[in-house]
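Lab manual, section 2.4: Encoding a predicted structure.

Procedure: take the sequence of the chain (272 residues), apply the prediction step described in section 2.3, and record the output as C-alpha cells. A sample record is shown.
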Amino acid sequence: MARFALTLVRHGETRYNKDKILQGQGIDEPLSATGFRQADAAGMFLSNMKFTHVFSSDLLRAKQTAAAITGKNKFCKDIVIKYDARLRERKYGVAEGKPLSDLKAMAKAARQQCPSFTPSGGETLDEVRARAKDFFEFLCQLSLEESQKKVVLDTAGNGLETLEEKSVFPWTNHYNGPEFNSDNDKAAKMLDVNILVVSHGAYMRNWIHYFVSELECNLPTTLTKSQLSSVSPNTGVSHFIIKLGNGNIKPEISCVCLNQDAHLVDVDSGNV
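Recorded output:
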C-alpha cells in the first residue's frame, strides 16, 4: 500500500482575472504585480512542506506561480518543476479573450447553464475531467513506484527518510477526519510521496468534482455545497491524502482543506 499527499494550488492573479476576462489556453498572460505577491504569500505558507515532486501547467501564469512557491520553500532547492499540458486550464474556444459576461450570454442563448456550456472550439467538462483523471492516475502510478523503491531500499538496509503527515501541512492538526484521529498506527501516517501541483481554477474544480463524484473523497464536515462547487481564489490551496491499495482497488481520498486562502489576508488581491 502506498500513501501520498497532494497539494493543489491555483495560479496567482493576472490582469485578465481581475477584469473577468476568460484566458483558457489561448491567452498566456503573465502574473500581475498582485499575482506575484499572492504567489510569494503561498510560497511562505507552504515553505515548510517537504515536497518530493512538483508539477505545473505549462502556461505562463502557472509556471510563474510554481517558481515563486518553490523559491520560498526550504526543501525544494534541488527539485525540478515538471510542466505538463494535462494541467492546462479548460479550453474556452471562441470565448477566450472575451469577458465572462459574454460566455454567460452565449450559454443563455443556447439555453444552458454557464458552467456546463461549451462554446465553439472549447472543451466539454467531460474532456477536462478526462485530462484530470489521466494525470491523477499518473500520480498514483508514480507513488506506487516510489513506495516499491523504498521497500527495496529498506530491505537492503538503506533506509530512506520518511515524511510524517502531521509535520508537513499547516492545517493538518485542525482536521477532524478519521485519518488523523488515531495514534495507534504510526506507519499509517507516513507518506511515500508529497506532491505539489499548480494549475487553474476551472480545471481544478473539475478535478475535485472527479474526486468527489467518482472516488467518493472524504470531505471536511464544515464544507458547504457552495464551497465545493466554487472556483478556487487565486493561489487558493487544497490538500488531500491518498491511500492506494493493491490491484484495482479504488484509491481512498481524504480532503484536509479546500480552496483555503488564509495566506492572502495581508495581500491586496482584488480577486474575482
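Check your result against the sample. The mean pLDDT is 87.
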